[in-house]
Specification:
Layout: H1 2-34, H2 42-67, H3 75-92, H4 97-122, H5 126-145, H6 155-162, E1 164-165, H7 176-202, H8 210-232, E2 237-238, H9 239-257, H10 259-269, H11 271-276, H12 281-307, H13 318-328, H14 340-359, H15 364-391
Antiparallel strand pairs: 1-2
């Protein structure tokens, strides 16, 4: 029956899309038990956001690169270089903090232009270009810093990753402003989801039942408010979380609702078909790497602010964490599949696992093994889904 077939297809697709969220809830619950509740303690939840915010920022750009069928191995070195440029200007030269921020962003743009030129115009594979970039920008970092660390940054600069908004509207033993912002976010998500549902109904596209839709909204609202409750009982709303939320909203809209976003998915799905359809693949590739450079510079600013220093070894292995976040979040190895929200959840899974294992006192070597196994399983799941889809045709 057509109706039954559509329902089964809808349920299967929803389960596949929701699998990462189910896995995230399971991992949080598991490590909450294993750490005796310490994982979800207010101070630890705050520290979790502060410690892994720069990886999540990198994951946003990385998932777009992967969806287009590329990879970027240089982002860790770009994080180090942009932080070094900020440090030299603000610490050594004594310039205002905002000059260091603008200089870091400008450096990220130049890096993106450099790599975008070789990938989009010359046609060198991104793997090779960014592998070279990893070496080039790490070397430049050493030259800029003179192979020494610089610290401390001005107090205003430190507030980027270490500042909080709290006490604006009071609260007895908690920050009411944090809860208010979370409530507004939940309402905004609910309204946006309802509008999306109604648009699908207008075009006779399959949607979940109203009961399932309501349960999904309630579940998300409960998770968000519980998270906000923990933040409200710690130090309030981190400034870096506001920055991260803004990036997620902006890039979520870009990838889902803009022509540029549709072109990225078209290229990753079938490059030849995209070119025949009139997609300017050179332009898209160029802008992708410029965008990655900007996001890497933002991550560099946040990391330098968080560590209150610029170090020659800053950002090492960050590219692998960002790539892992994208793949665990559902990005396909072959391109064409992946979402910003999925990459964020994938990054949070890695963050919760790392933080939980640190609390438990597990050795770093064992932590690396566990994270590697999780990455392999995530990619294996993607491969399995593709084979099953092809077999059902």
């Amino acid at each position: 029956m057509p109706g039954t077939s559509n329902l089964v297809e809808l349920l299967t697709r929803n389960l596949r899309q929701s699998g990462i969220y189910i896995a995230f809830v399971f991992i949080v619950a598991l490590f909450t038990v294993l750490t005796g509740g310490t994982l979800l303690a207010p101070n630890n939840v705050t520290n979790l956001i502060l410690q892994y915010s720069y990886i999540l920022i990198l994951a946003i750009g990385m998932v777009m690169i992967i969806v287009a069928g590329h990879i970027d191995l240089s982002v860790g070195s770009v994080v180090a270089l942009t932080g070094a440029v900020s440090a030299v200007l603000t610490i050594q030269q004594g310039l205002p903090w905002w000059v260091g921020v603008l200089a870091a962003l400008g450096t990220g743009v130049l890096v993106g232009i450099w790599q975008g030129f070789w990938v989009a115009v010359v046609g060198i594979p991104a793997f090779i270009v960014t592998l070279a970039g990893m070496l080039i920008f790490r070397g430049l970092t050493l030259q800029v810093l003179g192979n020494v660390s610089l610290s401390p940054f001005p107090s205003e600069y430190q507030q980027i990753a270490g500042g909080f908004l709290n006490g604006l509207i009071g609260g007895q033993g908690y920050d009411a402003f944090t809860l208010l912002i979370a409530a507004i976010a939940v309402i905004g998500y609910a309204v946006s989801s309802w509008r999306t549902r109604m648009r699908k109904l207008e075009f006779d596209q399959p949607v979940e039942s109203l009961v399932l839709f309501a349960l999904k909204i309630l579940a998300i609202a409960a998770v968000v408010m519980a998270f906000a409750w923990q933040l409200a009982h710690s130090r309030g709303l981190p400034i870096v979380l506001i920055l991260l939320a803004a990036l997620v909203l902006i890039y979520g809209a870009v990838t889902k609702r803009s022509v540029f976003g549709r072109h990225i998915y078209a290229m990753g799905g079938n490059l030849s078909a995209a070119q025949l359809s009139g997609v300017n693949t050179r332009r898209v590739n160029f802008l992708l790497f410029v965008n990655m450079g900007v996001l890497a510079s933002i991550a560099g600013i946040v990391y330098a602010s968080r560590s209150n220093s610029a170090q020659p070894a800053a950002g090492e292995m960050f590219e692998l964490d960002a790539i892992a976040a994208a793949f665990i979040g559902g990005a396909a190895v072959t391109g064409g599949v992946g979402t910003v929200m999925g990459a964020i959840v994938g990054g949070l899974i890695m963050a919760v696992m790392s933080n939980g294992m640190q609390i438990m006192g597990i050795e770093q070597s064992t932590q690396s093994v566990v994270r590697g196994v999780v990455l392999v399983l995530a990619v294996a799941f993607d491969v399995y889904n593709k084979r099953r889809a092809q077999g059902s045709r």
